[in-house]
UniProtKB/TrEMBL annotation:
NCBIfam families: yfcH
The protein's name in its UniProt record: TIGR01777 family protein
Entry similarity comment: Belongs to the NAD(P)-dependent epimerase/dehydratase family. SDR39U1 subfamily.
Residue intervals of the DUF1731 domain: 248-294
Amino acid sequence: MKTVLISGATGLVGKKLKAALEAKNYTVRSLSRKKEKDLFYWNLQENYVDPKAFENLNTIIHLAGAPISEKWTKEYKKELYDSRIKTAELLFENTKKYAPDLKTFITSSGANYYGTFTTDKIFSENEPNGNDFLGNLCLDWENAAFKFESLGTRVATVRTAAVLSDKDGMLKKLMPLTKLNLASPLGSGKQIVPWIHIDDLVGIYIHILENENLNGAFNACAPEIVNNSQFTKTLAKTMSKSAFLPDVPSFILKIILGEMSSIVLKGSAVSPEKIQNSRFKFQFPELNSALKNLIQ
């Protein structure tokens, strides 16, 4: 059975993916900045990855990255960059030394690859990156991954929408407000919210891993397109609550969140057609069923 090394294995997606792979009898190794038993130590500042992590290694899945939901100070922007791109480069240099025959490298990326703005256009994987902070961040993130192709390694990038989980992330933050009947659309409420159930996201990673003909970029988002207002009302209905408060004005969010407010005030649809055409089937293609599964 294949051996898979995961960066970010202690994060929201990493934990779920690790458990799913182990249930399928994969050998899973976890990179960690903590020196603990059963974990493989790595540290970007020390330019170090435990060489033992690369022994008889088949696949690397790169999920590490600081969350984008923190305020984007100059220092935090650097952390967002280094935790994604610099760590990928560190993995590449160590793979050249210790596992030059690596078969597969799969990296997380973001649905913000196409830029953070609102339009009626639905973006597919052949569209260029957006010329803004997140668009350029995702481009550099993916370019760092494609360096592995020089080793003969198959590379895939997973452009991930907002991940829905009852454990953490956007949904976890919205549920307490909704429970108190304080749910409200943000800004105009017309911005699209690309989303995906965490089980489907884990399924996409495993699908790409197990189908060796798949490479390049894949949008990881549910087929149903909803805007912020529709998302808020569906969440409230699922929780048997109301969502009739006025929209939260954009200027307030801009004051509170700064530049990062763009990810909640703007958004466009992305298409999952490419992954669907590879015979991947979503368990939760509609928001209503996804929320019911996670909440009820």
